[in-house]
Amino acid sequence: MGNKQSLVKGQLKSWVKRAAGETERIEACFSGLAYAPHSHDTYTLALTTLGVQSFNYRGELRHSLPGEVVILHPDETHDGQAGTDSPFAYRAISINPVEVQNILQGACLPFLHGGVSRDPRFVHIASRLLSEFNRPLQTLEQQELIYAFASSLQQVSGNSVKHTKANYTAIKRVLEYIDDIITTDCAMSHDITLDELAVIAQYSKWQVARDFRSLYGTTPYRYVTLKRLQKAKALIERGQPLAQVAFSSGFADQSHLTRHFKQCFGTTPKVWAKLHLASTT
């Protein structure tokens, strides 16, 4: 990592590499600032492998050293930077709260307040999810590890028996409806409304919005946006022009894509494309 040339302003070159397979797993190296403040609608499970990974999270500056695990809750604002003058590196996986909620069946999403852990359970789970980047995760393998992640996080956070008042069955129907629309709509441009979702859930559209957030840590609108951004990321990593990426992933134009991309990932599509290009040179 350390002998690569700099991308910007004389710093050690920063880069991001994606693992094989459809699951979003990345390996990254940064000098200085990595990400501006942002929030995304997934859990992040990251294993620090080099240097000091620092980030502001829930009002405090946190630090993760090699061998420690970072666990970020959905919809929590954070940034990212090197904690020293030396670069830092990490491997990370994005875990959809839907996968966690499929295990919890209506319980509150568990929360690790400090954001950094040395707990052997999390280190073991992260190591198994992130050790082999040259092959895709097998479905059963991933499911078992996500189950272990959700269970361990419940035990650590103390939320093992705390349930929401949300109608889990109805909101799961809503989620499946949204996923079906996004899967079948090639341009991902279908304008899903709360009125549609209320019909699916068979109760108030405002209750649908509240219950969806309670169960999945985000709103229906942001869930749809995240799905579009995930598609945009994949297209960017394949080298597609950004204007085409915006159209293919359901955004009005490139500036619309850029605004949402930076809010969710803390960087722009253009920079993300350069980071991935840097990992191959």
Summed up:
The protein is α+β, with helices and mostly antiparallel strands and 281 residues long. Helices cover 43% and strands 19% of the residues. It has ten helices and ten strands.
What this model shows, in words?
The protein has 281 residues and is an alpha+beta fold. The protein contains 10 helices and 10 strands. The protein has helices at 97-104, 120-130, 139-157, 168-184, 194-201, 205-216, 220-237, 242-248, 254-265, 269-278, and strands at residues 15-18, 25-30, 33-38, 43-50, 53-57, 60-64, 69-72, 78-82, 88-95, 116-117. Strands 1-2-9-4-7-10 form a 6-stranded antiparallel β-sheet. The radius of gyration is 19 Å and the shape is globular. The chain starts with 14 loop residues before the first strand and ends with a helix. The model is unreliable at 1-11 (pLDDT under 50).
Helix content: 40-55%
- Compute the number of helices: 10
Class per helix and strand makeup = alpha+beta
Catalogue the unreliable spans. Answer: 1-11
Q: Could you give the distance between the termini?
A: 12 Å
Mean pLDDT: 89
Biggest sheet strand order reads: 1-2-9-4-7-10
Question: What's the gyration radius in Å?
Answer: 19 Å
Quickly list its features:
281 residues; alpha+beta; 6-stranded antiparallel β-sheet; 19% strand; globular; disordered N terminus
Please specify the SSE layout and strand pairing.
Blueprint: E1 15-18, E2 25-30, E3 33-38, E4 43-50, E5 53-57, E6 60-64, E7 69-72, E8 78-82, E9 88-95, H1 97-104, E10 116-117, H2 120-130, H3 139-157, H4 168-184, H5 194-201, H6 205-216, H7 220-237, H8 242-248, H9 254-265, H10 269-278
Helix pairs in contact: 1-3, 2-3, 4-5, 4-6, 4-7, 5-6, 7-8, 7-9
